[in-house]
Request: fold
Amino acid sequence: MAYIAAYDDVKVNRMERQLPNGGRGWRTRFITPPEGVVDSPVAFLVEGTKERVIRPHYHQVDQFQVVVSGGGTLGRHPLALHAVHFTRAHTPYGPILFNDEGLGFLTLRAHWDPGAQYIPDQREKLQSVPNRKPWQTTEAPKFDPSAPISLQPFEQVKDKRGLGAFALTLQPNMATTAPDVSGTNGQYIIVTKGSVVHQGKPHAALTIIFVKPHEEAFKLQAGPDGAEALILNFPRRDIPAQAMAPKADSPRYRVWQCELCAFSYDEAKGMPEEGIAPGTRWEDIPEDWICPDCATSKRDFQMREAG
Reply:
């Protein structure tokens, strides 16, 4: 049976803590596994005021994060409302900074995880992990309200192991079936707007649904105001992950890749958004430049392709 948890039902366990710098943070548990059970989904909501900072870290399982309020940055990447961030196991990311209006995001895992492993404290532990294939990506959904039922796949959140993400739009009272879950490691459905009706009971946004790989595809019916939802498929763990090998746009230039998180810098493309013009050689990038995905330094980059 699928797990279903609505914010209206779980908000009673919202926990607040005061930050040393005067800010405030909250954590709301949506799905918590029984003690000692590792083969169970985990879902919780993280919120904070602008003073909150989450240092670069990694986890030992794959995870999704979904922005549900406010905004901020992850590394140097902006986090807009409903943006989806996917991180493979043992891939560092961050820091996460909260905007002036604060930030709220869901953390979603198909399995239990022991907790954040912070960089640089756990750097040696991370580098000792065998066959690590780090990779992460962030993408915003494209909802299409023009059709009675619209399912828009994400362009970047996908791989050959079943990873996938979709933006679903249902006009009032319309019904559909979520994508097949059998070729995945589990599926989350996040109702971000409106409501869905399941077994005669309405579940308003924000609602989280988790479907295990052996279960039937979940049936969704929109409430009287329609619904928008994100559908997130975890990649299978029985198929080895592939390294994301960077390729240079031009044979005259080189590609440099972060050894910790796999972010790649292509000399041909540069990084205009950071003031680094196309064609800028690696040697000409300031020594205090940091990785946009995990905030590590230039010394953690290795050349992957030479012109």
About this structure: The chain is about 5% helix and 40% strand.
